[in-house]
Amino acid sequence: MSKAPSMPMYWDAYLADTTHLTTEEHGAYMLLLGAMWRRNGWVPDDDRDNARILGLTVGKWRKIKARLSDFLMFQGGEISQKKLLETWEKTQEKIEKNRSNGAKGGRPKVSKNKGLEKANASVSVNPNQTIPEPEPEIKREAKASPKKRGSRLPQDWALPVAWGNWALGEGWPEPAVRSEADKFRDYWHSVAGQKGVKLDWLATWRNWMRNSKNPRIINGGQNEHSPRHPNRLQRIVTAAAEGTSGQDWG
To answer: 194-198: which pairs have CB atoms within 8 A and are 24 or more residues apart?
Structure first.
């Protein structure tokens, strides 16, 4: 089941790009996008499975797949769509920020009596309370502040120590973290234009790992696909006990 509550749909852009499709191709494309959204942005590149999802024969799906190939992304045995994947990631970032704000207690409540003491300056309910200063200038400054700009992933990017240790702490073994870091770097270097620009690359990395197909280590045990030597997290703990850093991801 998808982690997103709903799927935004940009109809103007969709219709502008798909006027050449037949009604059957439109239907297959829309159902495929819906399946991607419910599966966290990707579906397996499996003709039989996708034909079943779309209610088509395998032969018919392969013909439509060829017609839709200009819209689709094929990577690592899976299929996605650039705009959908970008929207998925932005939605996950908003959900993560909302969850973080909720954990902090959300926005402070505004008192219903705000300004009452100003209107009745001669009679204060609490004579020791300072009357707050008006805030219109502060609000105007906030509106005039420059918009935060995103950036592309640097060409010489390497996985930062803190990012790798976060992934280890979430249960991924070291080989999986290194493999995903290579995929992460190659993927974002290959994305052209504004779609490859992000405001928060750490949040993008965390969402990438949460959508990873690599198995995690559960409760300190080893997954059946994990190597039999100690993982990165175990080496960090051992190194700390022996007085060494163990923090070099190079």
So the answer is: 195/82, 195/86, 196/152, 196/153, 197/150, 197/151, 197/152, 198/150, 198/151, 198/152, 198/153
Q: What pTM, to 2 d.p., does this model score?
A: 0.39
DSSP 228-250: SS--HHHHHHHHHHHT-------
Give the integer Cα–Cα distance in Å for 208 and 191.
15
28-71 pLDDT, tens digit each: 989 999 898 888 889 999 999 999 999 999 999 999 999 998 88
Query: How far does Cα 218 stand from its chain's mean position?
Result: 23
Distance (Å, whole) CA 76 – CA 38:
19
Q: Could you tell me if 214 and 203 are in contact, meaning their C-beta atoms sit under 8 angstroms apart?
A: no
Terminal Cα distance for the chain, rounded? 37
